[in-house]
Each structure stands twice: as structure tokens, then as C-alpha cells.
Design brief:
Elements: E1 9-12, E2 15-18, E3 23-27, H1 36-46, H2 49-57, H3 62-69, H4 71-82
Antiparallel strand pairs: 1-2, 2-3
Length: 85
């Protein structure tokens, strides 16, 4: 698979999983500015499974992968959260 889509990303409780093998993508245990919906939307828009899992397999945390690829997205969400929006 060369694209993330809503269909191949599944929520199972606090986990976001990918594909028929249910590969772990991210966990959303605590409330905070980065909801599963926001994370998934950014993942679909700007990442491929190959690039994401390459970074993840090298020990980079899920949110850090998205932050490094799109700091404007990350900073916009953090600023809104800090301002209570």
C-alpha cells in the first residue's frame, strides 16, 4: 500500500492501526491537543506508509514524525491549545 486512507487506518480503542496486518501507528491514551482525528487527517494528507514506518522503525515517536514533517501544523495546534481555543 502506498497511501494512508480512512479505510486502511482503523481505530481500536486508544490505538490507531494500519492495514490488514493491523500495524501499530499511534496510541492516544491521554487527552490533549492532538486527537486521533487531527493526527489521522495529517497522516493521510502528508505521509506515506513507507516514509512513516521507516521513521517509526528508527525509533522516532509518532507525533514527532508528523511534527518534523509539518512544523506549521504542529505549532498551529499547540498555539490554539495553549490559548484555550
Amino acid at each position: 500500500m502506498n497511501k494512508f486512507t480512512k479505510e486502511n487506518l482503523k481505530r481500536e480503542g486508544q490505538y490507531l492501526l494500519f492495514g490488514p496486518d493491523r500495524n501499530f501507528v499511534a496510541r492516544f491514551k491521554h487527552g490533549g491537543p492532538f486527537t486521533m482525528t487531527k493526527f489521522r487527517k495529517e497522516l493521510i494528507a502528508n505521509h506515506t506508509p513507507e516514509s512513516y514506518f521507516r521513521e517509526y522503525d528508527n525509533g522516532v515517536a509518532p507525533l514527532t514524525i508528523l511534527q518534523n514533517a509539518n512544523p506549521v501544523w504542529y505549532n498551529r495546534i499547540m498555539t490554539a491549545f495553549k490559548l484555550g481555543a
